[in-house]
Design goal:
This protein has 119 residues and is mainly β. It contains no helices and 11 strands. The chain starts with a strand and ends with a strand.
C-alpha cells in the first residue's frame, strides 16, 4: 500500500519562505506526475503546481514567480519551495502522486500540512 507523508508547513511572516516536502513509500512501479493543491478556509481546493515525469511544470497564476516545484525520483519525493509568501497563501497544502502501484493506476494524496502566513 502506498502512503504519502508531508512535512514542512508552519507559521511564517509575510515575505518569508517555507519548503514543503512529500515522500511516497510502498511499492511503486511508475510516477507519472506529482503536485500540490491547497485549500483555504471556506474556499474550494485549488491547484498550486504540478510536475510531470518529463520535468514539465505548471503553476497557478497566483504563485508564478514565487513558488518552485521540484522532484527527486530516487527518493519518490516532491518539493514545493515557497518564497515571498503572502497572507493569501494561508491554506492547508496537499500533495498528490499520479502513480502506478501493485493494484494499478491510482491518485494518492498526502494528509495535508498547514501553512499560515501572518501579515
Amino acid at each position: 500500500q502506498v502512503q504519502l507523508v508531508e512535512s514542512g508547513g508552519g507559521l511564517v511572516q509575510a515575505g518569508g519562505s517555507l519548503r514543503l516536502s512529500c515522500t511516497a513509500s510502498g511499492v511503486i512501479f511508475r510516477i507519472n506526475a506529482m503536485g500540490w493543491y491547497r485549500q483555504a478556509p471556506g474556499k474550494q481546493r485549488e491547484l498550486v503546481a504540478t510536475i510531470t515525469s518529463g520535468i514539465s511544470t505548471n503553476y497557478a497564476d497566483s504563485v508564478k514567480g514565487r513558488f518552485t516545484i521540484s522532484r527527486d525520483n530516487a527518493e519518490n519525493t516532491v518539493y514545493l519551495q515557497m518564497d515571498s509568501l503572502k497572507p493569501e497563501d494561508t491554506a492547508v497544502y496537499y500533495c498528490y502522486f499520479d502513480l502506478v502501484a501493485i493494484k494499478g493506476p491510482k491518485l494518492e494524496w498526502g494528509q495535508g500540512t498547514q501553512v499560515t502566513v501572518s501579515s
